[in-house]
Write a structure and sequence with these properties.
3 domains, about 5% strand, 7 helices, two-stranded parallel sheet, extended, mainly alpha
Length: about 200
């Protein structure tokens, strides 16, 4: 079937399937795309909520999985405009176990403090770098946190949602402890979710 106003150009068209867990046939189709070879395919999704019994074939050997992470400090510096050579120069001091020059140390310490506040989520880093200040950062961080809460409870039912959210919201409390251990037994059974 031809879609109006869409040209599928062989070897120059990319299909992007977002939230692939919403359509279990996507996982099976990857083998066909690979064997056909005319189009590139990228899929994204958390794979939460997939009922693996419904998948005809998971295209084993016909896909390459990547686990995505937030930006680390080096990537944060790239976003700030640092070049590879500049970062390599700082690494050279570390490799030789030498202190950074005072001006380098002061600049990097300030960048690291910014990174600790901003975090590594790409949208937040982009906003921070574009505005060159913290304006609006907290609002985006709070929205991303709410999006996480919505995502982790999307496939849970009834009281499980409450338990999951309660555990998720306790993570900062446990990280604030000296031993940094998350202890599920310390969360009250059937505890009511506290507002953030």
């Amino acid at each position: 079937m031809k879609i109006p106003d869409v040209d599928l150009i062989e070897n120059d068209t990319l299909f992007f399937f977002d939230e692939m867990q919403e359509c279990v046939s996507t996982a099976t189709s990857l083998k066909d795309f690979r064997e056909d070879g005319r189009y590139d395919v990228i899929c994204s999704g958390s794979l939460m909520g997939i009922n693996y019994n419904e998948i005809e074939s998971n295209s084993v050997g016909n896909k390459e999985d990547y686990v995505m992470h937030s930006l680390d400090f080096e990537e944060f510096l790239w976003a700030k405009g640092y070049k590879e050579e500049q970062i390599e120069e700082m690494y050279s001091y570390m490799i030789k176990v030498e202190s950074l020059l005072k001006y380098m140390y002061d600049i990097m310490l300030n960048h690291f403090k910014d990174y600790m506040i901003v975090g590594g989520m790409p949208r937040i880093v982009d906003t921070f770098v574009t505005n060159n200040n913290f304006n609006g950062i907290l609002k985006i961080q709070q929205q991303i946190n709410l999006d996480y809460e919505e995502d982790i409870t999307k496939y849970a039912g009834g009281l499980d949602k409450t338990k999951i959210l309660n555990a998720y919201r306790k993570i900062p409390v446990f990280l604030d402890n000296e031993n940094k251990k998350f202890q599920i037994s310390k969360i009250k059974e059937g505890a009511v979710i506290e507002s953030m």
